[in-house]
Amino acid sequence: MGMIVTIQPSTLSGNIYAPASKSSMQRACAAALVRKGISVIQNPGISNDDKAALSIIKEMGCEIKINNDELVIDSTNAIIHSQLKTIDSRLSTINCGESGLSIRMFTPIVALCKNKVTINGEGSLLKRPMDFFDEILPQLNVAINSNQGKLPLQITGPLQPKNIEIDGSLSSQFLTGLLMAYSASNTDAVSISVKDLKSKPYVDLTLKVMNDFGLNVPENNNYEEFVFRKSQISNLKSQINYTVEGDWSGAAFLLVAGAIAGNIIVKGLDVQSTQADKKIIEALQDCGCTLSISDTEINVANSPLGVRGFHLNATDCPDLFPPLVALASYCKGTTVIEGVSRLVHKESNRALTLQDEFAKMGVQIELQDDLMMIKGGDTVKGARVHSRHDHRIAMACAVAALKAEGETIIEEADAINKSYPNFYEHIKLLGASVSL
Fold it and tell me: Which domain holds residue 219?
């Protein structure tokens, strides 16, 4: 059964800080590794995925200290900076936990070393397809053995950047790893061509983090080609400071909770962020909840007039489906969300999981090609639901429970540790009745 959480209908109020962005935190870990020297990271994330990224850079030879709330990373002796990238007895296996971003981003960086390294992971990551690496790494002189396109991977570098073309429709995370690795090798006049790139905002975030850390950033030709030139800059500033952004995908659940059940203020979110999931704001504006936004905080409240169905294209922000479904459950009329095809390779097949779990709460969801239609506005019923070991499903059910009729019981509720370990504590601080 794992952990069980019971939620009673509640009214929320007060202020809360958004959790740290995993996308920003894990990229910062990779950039701190690639940049030789000391990087100080403020507002570091504490999710399981963030811990996976930290353990990887530690394996690669970074020294990590925690001062108050900052993380100090010293990569001076990391293996990718040793002149010969020699075989190093410290490095033989890397464990990426359940983090899809970590495995896709760090594999090409680890491949810069001469070592034979086994790259492994846990849980749902063992089922995710990795054939991208089988196809691309051999073109870059890296020997690879995978388990028929799945983990574990065995790779032997060193990776040598060449002009390649990749398919960007699978996941932008593979591209993020190649951009970091090419940058680390300070190569000249080499390009990565990309066809059909999805999730451009995530690539923007990668380039922005690379820039913030003083790495060699490629020229971006309309997301179709990324060209690297040899960098003249020596990035030996004594240290750089980087603040991890608030996470729009985790905060989306808080914002929806405010729209359904309260009057709350969420702080620490950057409205100018490159994060795709800030698109939650469009849904909140569209459904008619009470919303005011400033540079430092977002105030969101239940509208006295009630909320109404909305239409959103979530192709570029598939992680918003779960909070959007929770919101739509309370919106009069039918809500239409586009982008269902992006939900297959997540921790669960999210379209079907949302349909199943919300049906238990009396909410009808229809799937038609790339569209999800949620019939909202009827009474949402408290029920016994299951996270399906998917962090975002657990949070979506918890948020929907806040105004349901009767109590809701969530099984395997600790799935949230993957991205937002203090989620239940946060909604409790805002006044939700949660018993663990």
Answer: 22-243
